[in-house]
Amino acid sequence: MRKNYLLTPGPTPLPPQVMEAQARPIIHHRTPQFQAALKEATEGLKYIFQTTQDVFILTSSGTGAMESAVINLLSPGDTVITIEAGKFGERWTEICKAYGINTEVISVEWGKAVSPDLVKSKIQNSKVKIKAVFSTLCETSTGVATNIEALGKVAKDTETVLVVDAISGLGAIDLKTDAWGIDVVVSGSQKGMMLPPGLAFISLSPKAWKLAEESKCPKYYFDMKEARKALKSTDTPFTPAITLVMALNESLRIMKEDGLENIFKRHSKMAEATRAAMKALGLELFAPDAYSDVVTAVKLPVGFDGEKLVKTMRDTFGVTIAGGQSELKGKVFRFAHMGFIEEFDIIVGLSCLEKVLTQMGYKFNFGSGVRAAQEVFLK
Fold first, then answer.
1. Three-class SS of residue 78?
2. Secondary structure of residue 86 in the 3-state scheme
């Protein structure tokens, strides 16, 4: 027998209430019963997004919401800024190019965060109108957190809209959509929201809706004007993922009961403990100056195979962490601490990491990582 632990940056573990909700008999989506569930979910998401605007539920992965943002705001030939600080910043560029959008790319060294002043300068000095800036809240591939509040101030008094991929951070770290002036927030279900993959979420500010009225990109399934029309009747344009919406309400109840501030504090503490453990083990953080509270990326010692580390932890001991992506494959591992995870999950993960590192020949004071984490949790 082996117990499995999931410490990846998506999907994340599911609370028992969420799993139970998915086992209930399904209902029809064009009924008062589902309308009540949909209303509860969309209202509850406003609390998580920290917005008074409508939040729309899409049946897709988070990338569907990213594509929806692009095609509903823009027209072929428009110019935007995309911030590439990792694999998922690159995704914004790829989606824009697929729809004929001109992209002015700000390339940031992986492991670093973009300078808001650089973005401001890029907007002000561009020879053409910048319709939108696309950024990430947490760049999952590197563990870097972006200063979204500062980017909101940059875009606030311009005609440029700020679009944020919050797929890896929403529900785990602070994101004040309205207060920070974020025009579009997109997210997904399988990370901080503690659900299986399959739902995406998107909110638009009045400023963003003005662009949506002018957009000429082709769209059908992800037409937000149709989604808005349907939501006015507490409905969806197409068949929704009924069971996932029911499960979403369970997750939202848990999060409201905990309270956002307590959720953010829990994630901050787990992240601090994880970073302390890595340093105690003599391992180098990949993003020491711009780390996030949802996932920690760690450099492998020279000569050590990151893919082997991840495989051994998962297949031999049942602890799943994530390896590096793209140019970081085999060079880093990513240890997540978001969603339905608490301090003893972190301790188990760190204990397994120490065991496998020892088996691979890495020299350190055995138990030092676990001890460092426990000391943080005892504060």
1. coil
2. coil
